[in-house]
Inverse folding.
């Protein structure tokens, strides 16, 4: 295996690990708005707390999409 092949493999491995981290974080964050809505039902705090979480989940999905495109086999 050449150095360039090894470098490509390391880079792909890093992207794959980032993808896995994003999936795990997205799963965890997706659970939080439901808990917040249950604990703060009929409260203006519910939206104030959940909107940033939902925005972050949306950004994670975008980041995942980029990685999925990069990791697709040719």
């Amino acid at each position: 295996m050449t150095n360039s092949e090894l470098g490509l493999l390391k880079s792909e491995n890093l992207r794959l690990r980032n993808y896995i981290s994003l999936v795990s974080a997205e799963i965890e964050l997706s659970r939080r708005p439901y808990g917040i809505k249950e604990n703060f039902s009929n409260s203006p705090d519910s939206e104030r707390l959940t909107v940033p979480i939902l925005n972050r989940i949306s950004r994670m999905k975008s980041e995942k999409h980029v990685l999925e495109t990069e990791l697709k086999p040719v």
In short: The CA atoms of residues 35 and 50 lie 10 Å apart. The mean pLDDT is 91. Residues 3-71 form one domain. The longest helix spans residues 3-39.
